[in-house]
Structure formats: structure tokens, C-alpha cells
Design a protein that fits this description.
Blueprint: H1 2-24, E1 37-44, H2 47-52, H3 54-59, E2 65-68, H4 76-87, E3 91-94, H5 102-107, H6 113-130, E4 137-139, H7 147-153, E5 159-163, E6 173-174, E7 181-186, H8 195-208, E8 211-216, E9 218-219, E10 226-227, H9 229-242, E11 245-246, H10 249-252
Parallel strand pairs: 1-2, 1-8, 1-11, 2-3, 4-5, 5-7, 7-8, 9-10
Antiparallel strand pairs: 6-8
């Protein structure tokens, strides 16, 4: 009787362990998606422009990441537009309260890093949280950053994004995991990047199982800080030809 009871107990424990460990394999951690893709990011407070161009993004099944600054100046209409952008599957991320150069704010403005974090991170985040936006990723204004700032910001965010101002395009290829610091390649008209170089970076993402990270501001407007519709369509078509998926920054971050 005791022997049967012990045997049954062991069998149940074995089955329970099998269930637990087999269940764990069904979940993928952020930053461990095994298919290459494109990560489109847009910066600043250009919500009216982005909202107007939602149909263009939707037409290609794009899910982009919008890094928001100056939320404290948004009108109610702009907040509603941002909510609609989010409802289309896009990520609402964070880009500081006032869009100051964070290095200058401390070293030239003579503020402490603690003051920087309160004024340019915590205060703006609280306002966004009150309206139902909960950013988990961050982009530096002007791309200016340091390792010290990276570590401080990791208290609030899963990843930080700088800008790739070098001729090494591979710096904008994010690997399949451990994406705490990424570098966006600027694709605006004033970025000085050719269509061919952008498409080559996408080829590299496909060949190396990585994510090509791009950064823009306005979409298809007359200002220089704008990515043209023609360039976006080339990116969309090339992504389709290569079978690349679109990811938000949160999805590729740890």
C-alpha cells in the first residue's frame, strides 16, 4: 500500500516537472526574437504629422516606436492623437521632458545628474503615466550620452537609444539579444545617407539575423528633419522582398 502510494507520488512529481519545464519553452523573452527585422523610430513631439501619416505606416503593416518629448505642452487633441497612434500597435516611448542636450544640462548648465533625472525624466514620465502612457524605452536628445547616463536611465527603462553618427553602418545593427544600448541610423533628408546604403543595412540585418534600427523625425514634410515618402516606400518594399518583420524597440530590448 505504502509502496503504491510512494510510486504514485513520484509519478505525479515527474509529470508536474515535465509540465512546468515544457510550459516555460512556450515563452520568448524580450530581446530573443529569432527572426531578423526592421526597427523604425521617430523622435520628438511631431504627433500631428505622425497621425496624418498613420495610413502610410498601416499600408505596410509597420509598427514603429515614437519617442516623445515636450509632452507637458501637448494639447488635449494631441494627446488623443497619440492615443490613437498607440492603438494602431505603435510603441510610445520617452525622449525627455524638454529635449535638452543631457550632457550640456549637467556640465554646462551646472545641474547634478539627480536634478537631470528628476526634471527631464521623472517629471515628464509622471505626466504621461497620468494619461495612460507608460514608456519603457528611451532615446537621447541629439544622441548625446555616456555610459554613466546609460546606467542611470536603466533604473527607468529597458533600453536607451543613441544616434549612429559614424560611417560604420553596422553600429545600427542590433543583435538578437542584450539590446540595452542601440544606435539609430538617421534616415531624414539631412542625415546624409543614401537610399542604397540604407537598403544595404537591411541586407545585413537579413544575412546576420539582426535588427536594422532607423531614426527619423517628421514623415514626408518639407523640413529637413523629415524622411520622405519615397524613402519609406523603398524601405517597406525591400523589407517585404527580404521577408523582414517590423519590431518596436521594446520588443528587441532586454
Amino acid at each position: 500500500m505504502l509502496r503504491n502510494f510512494a510510486g504514485n507520488t513520484i509519478s505525479l512529481l515527474v509529470l508536474l516537472l515535465i509540465f512546468i519545464f515544457s510550459g516555460c519553452t512556450k515563452f520568448k523573452k524580450d530581446g530573443q526574437i529569432k527572426e531578423p527585422g526592421v526597427v523604425l523610430t521617430f523622435d520628438d513631439d511631431r504627433v500631428d504629422n505622425w497621425y496624418k501619416n498613420l495610413p502610410l505606416l498601416d499600408s505596410a503593416g509597420v509598427r514603429a516606436t515614437f519617442y516623445i518629448c515636450k509632452y507637458n505642452r501637448f494639447t488635449l487633441e494631441q494627446k488623443n492623437k497619440l492615443s490613437i497612434i498607440q492603438s494602431h500597435g505603435h510603441e510610445i516611448a520617452y525622449h525627455t521632458t524638454n529635449h535638452y542636450n543631457m550632457m550640456d544640462y549637467v556640465y554646462k548648465g551646472k545641474h547634478t545628474i539627480e536634478e537631470l533625472m528628476k526634471n527631464e525624466v521623472e517629471d515628464g514620465l509622471k505626466l504621461m503615466n497620468l494619461d495612460g502612457f507608460y514608456p519603457t524605452t528611451f532615446a537621447y536628445p541629439y544622441g548625446a550620452h555616456s555610459g554613466v547616463y546609460d546606467k542611470m536611465l536603466m533604473r527607468y527603462f529597458k533600453s536607451v537609444r543613441g544616434l549612429n553618427g559614424t560611417s560604420d553602418y553596422s553600429k545600427s545593427l542590433a543583435p538578437m539579444e542584450k539590446n540595452e544600448v542601440i544606435y539609430g541610423l538617421v534616415i531624414d533628408k539631412n542625415g546624409g545617407r543614401s537610399d542604397e546604403s540604407i537598403l544595404r543595412l537591411m541586407n545585413s540585418a537579413s544575412e546576420n539575423k539582426a535588427y536594422a534600427v532607423f531614426t527619423g523625425h517628421d514623415i514626408n514634410s518639407s523640413i529637413s528633419l523629415s524622411v520622405t515618402k519615397g524613402r519609406l516606400l523603398k524601405i517597406f518594399n525591400h523589407a517585404k522582398d527580404l521577408g523582414l518583420k517590423y519590431y518596436t524597440v521594446s520588443e528587441i530590448s532586454q
